[in-house]
Amino acid sequence: MRSAMKFMIGASFAALALAGPAAAEIGEKWDPNYEPPRMADGTPSMQGIWTSASLTVLERGDQFNALVVPEAVAVAVETGAMAMKNSDNKPTDPDAPAPEAGGAGVGGYNTFWMDYGTKVARINGEVRTSWLVEPENGKLPWSEDGKNLLANLRKSFGENMDDPEIRSSGERCTVGFGSTGGPPMLNVLYNNNYQIVQESDTVAIVVEMNHNTRLVRMNDEHRPANMAGWLGDSVGKWEGDTLVVHSTNFHPGNAYRGAIRHRIYLTDDAEVVERFTRVSAEEIFYEFAVTDPEIYDQTWKGEMTLIAAEGPIYEYACHEGNYSLPGILGGARKEEADAAAAAAAVDTVTSDSSTTKRTVTRTYVNK
Amino acid sequence: MIRLTVAAMAFGLLTACATAPMDAGSDDGSTASVDRDLSGVWKVMNRANYDLEAHPARHAMQLVKGPYTPLPDKRVVALGAVGAVPAGESVVREGSIPYTAEALVQRDENRANWIDRDPEVKCYQPGVPRATYMDFPLKIIQNDDAMLIVYEYANTMRNINLVDPGEAPIDSWMGQSYGYWDGNTFVVEVTAQNGRAWFDRSGNHMSAMGTVTERYTRIDSDHIRYEATIQDEETFTEPWTVEMTLYRLVGEDAQLQEFNCIEFVEELLYGHLRKEPLK
Asked: Using CB atoms, which residue from B119, B122, B270 is nearest to A325?
């Protein structure tokens, strides 16, 4: 299996090399003389569909002791990921029995919809174990306040199902989870796709999850702080051939940005500086720096590549089909009603459960 | 600015041609490239989102039978004049929408149950052409290789494919858009909408089999003639067309704002599931 895959990778590299001998391959060392395609106004074109799907994530795993590791490590990680992916992609068993009544969970079927990438990031030819390059240890530099805030939030998400607005943005569909829309734009387990379209005064970054478009206003000033945006307020300028975007004024609803592989928190007046540079025909070098002194002890910086992807991007309509949030809230109400009924039974008092019944059987408005 | 034909783009001939064979110029003497520049922030000034057809002003979108005249439903009565419906001329070229008998019954049912059924009330994506004439501006971002239409309402956006993408693999709220130039008119064929969006607050509708052909024509520097022809044999006896003017927003405030209405409708959709529902 492993040797077969090595052969396939080798074969495909050879085919690519034959097809385009002049172009550097994705992940190879960049050509310092690379000349990017340009827009009519002479600025570099960032246009196209891009993906950040990767096995590399924001923070460095404890199994790695350096930012840059040998190629053999990447191959080992990719081999493991491929095995997992093959398992994810197995067809659903049509004869699978029903889940056990009263069991802890219904289990999963398969995870064909996961799209977390198949490659460890190679940035300018270096195999990277994290996007974070500062701090050097590849870990987020949480302040004590930040740590406490995060711990309280995680506890709250696990326990508090009282109201819709205290649930996470992913459950509410208010904005893509895990800072997929950014800034900084971080890779999550699926839908890591972006489309960039440029004009001289606007750079539009379409974020697949949830069909948000970040409109970067070029050579403009920030709006007043009360005009907060779910993706912040972004203004941009060109520094040579690099697009530099400064963002602040973040909507408090997108302060916590949690995903399975990372969690960050940005206050309203956090500042994010992003730098987009075309480095090859199929890569944008994407750098970001996040400053938020309340939450982090120092500015943290990351380096990522956005890789050209085949389009188009399809519609990610989350809110229109949101059964997650009413399920979570309704499930909690059902549990409370059951607990109240059980307590009443213990007391051998005839319970008037009409209120409870009305709560749990009411149909959702959006069905 | 689009200066090239679609065919040229398809073959990647993206050199700096000043004109293209299909450019016909224009009567007002402006250059073809200006005629073909739709970029900017645009907005209608009409009442089409209330009702595409001619309608007099009335008490409210949701009415109940009163002792003498229809009156506002109790769910909207507190809005007073703010909740009243302003009059509007028909934006339907044919005057009225040519429904089949069955589809007309559906429209009237939709209208009678507006507050429960209109996807706009729930902050759902509006579909095409409704996105164009809601009370929110839109921004067209355009160049030789790409075009986006970004709508302020509900973070809605459309990527306009400039090369025919073929049949869409799946239906969606905003459908699939394929655009090309016909002279100085930009034509967008919209297919694969899921049929759940409405055309307005008056229950006008089509099925998932419907197609919309939009035509955007610059008539001067600050106005676009907008036409959308709707075809759906399941719903209409013949194709019909809405037509209206898009006005350019000018000045410092000609920007899209953010209207992420999902959080604004959580109380409506999920309020009954709170641990302590609001009194």
From this structure: B270
DSSP string, A2-66: HHHHHHHHHHHHHHHHHH-TTSPPTTSPP-TT----B-TTSSBP--EEEE---S--SSPPTT--S
Residues found in chain A: 367
**pLDDT for the residue numbered B254:** 94
Tokens of A120: 């460890």
d(CA A8, CA B81): 70
Residue found under tokens 């970040």: A214
Arithmetic mean of pLDDT over chain B:
90
Q: Which pLDDT band holds residue A346 (cuts at 50, 70, 90)?
A: confident
- pLDDT, tens digit, 9 for 90 and up, residues A252-293: 999 999 999 999 999 999 999 999 999 999 999 999 999 999
- Beta strands B211-220 and A233-239 are unpaired
Measured between CA atoms, the residue of chain A closest to residue B39 is A199
Residue B106: HSE in the Cβ half-sphere, 13 Å Cα cutoff: 15
Alpha-carbon span B248 to B241, nearest angstrom = 22
pLDDT digits (tens, 9 = 90+) for A226-261: 999 999 999 999 999 999 999 999 999 999 999 999
What pLDDT was estimated at residue A173?
97
Are the beta carbons of A195 and B159 separated by less than 8 Å?
yes
Lowest-pLDDT choice from A237-241, B14-18, B55-59, B120-124: B14-18
Distance CA A272, CA A286 (A): 13
State residue A348's pLDDT score: 60
pTM of the model: 0.87
State whether B270 and A336 contact (CB < 8 Å). no
Contacts of residue B269 in chain A, CB cutoff 8 Å?
Answer: 326, 364-366
Whether the per-residue pLDDT at A7 is higher than 90: the answer is no
Contacts 24+ apart (CB under 8 A), A85-89: A85/A114, A85/A118, A88/A112, A88/A114
CB count within 10 Å of CB B8 equals 17
Residue B67: asked if its preceding bond is cis (omega within 30°), the reply is no
* CA–CA distance, A79 with B185 (Å, rounded to integer): 52
Report the gap between the CA of A162 and the closest CA in chain B (Å): 5
In this prediction, residue B15 carries a pLDDT of 32
How far is the C-alpha of A45 from the C-alpha of A55, rounded, in Å? 27
